[in-house]
């Protein structure tokens, strides 16, 4: 009988015990959102919590590696390889003007109604104070770096 191959992840690098509680908490939150009832929500609101948790998880690792320097490069690359974080979103955060970007769908012009910028990318000082805007993709109320 042939040997069955199973997918096994490599042993996590040193420092994993530092971030493991937070990663398991994000995973638990994601599972709760996935099984939560969606009858009371609008169709566009169903994915908002998933985008928010993905943003929080990626921002947590980004801050630990780039801002605080508390985790090693090996651990950072392990998180990318095991898909704990969104590497494209993190790459955008390193560019000027995108430091507070909420999701990648907000900067894709093909996803917007008029083919321009998402409403959450407009600085708050240029918006009407009385009206509350939210991004239809992720529910963000403002991720422009000029805020």
TrEMBL record:
Query: Where does the record place a coiled coil?
Result: none
Which Pfam families does the record match to this protein?
BUD31
Compartments, as annotated in UniProt? Nucleus
Q: Which organism is it from?
A: Blepharisma stoltei
The organism's superkingdom is given as Eukaryota
Query: Which UniProt keyword terms apply here?
Result: Nucleus
What cellular-component terms does GO give this entry? spliceosomal complex
Similarity section: Belongs to the BUD31 (G10) family.
The protein's name: G10 protein
PANTHER family named among the record's database cross-references? PROTEIN BUD31 HOMOLOG, PROTEIN BUD31-RELATED
GO biological process, any: mRNA splicing, via spliceosome
């Amino acid at each position: 009988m042939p040997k069955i191959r199973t997918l096994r992840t490599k042993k996590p690098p040193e420092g994993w015990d530092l971030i493991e509680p937070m990663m398991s908490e994000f995973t638990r939150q994601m599972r709760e959102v996935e099984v939560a009832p969606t009858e009371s929500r609008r169709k566009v609101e169903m994915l908002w919590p998933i985008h928010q948790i993905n943003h929080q998880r990626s921002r947590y690792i980004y801050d630990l590696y780039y801002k605080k320097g508390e985790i090693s490069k090996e651990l950072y690359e392990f998180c990318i390889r095991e898909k704990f974080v969104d590497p494209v979103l993190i790459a955008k955060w390193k560019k000027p003007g995108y430091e507070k970007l909420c999701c990648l769908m907000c900067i894709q012009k093909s996803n917007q109604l008029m083919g321009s910028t998402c409403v959450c990318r407009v600085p708050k000082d240029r918006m009407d104070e009385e009206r509350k805007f939210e991004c239809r993709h992720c529910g963000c109320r403002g991720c422009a770096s000029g805020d």
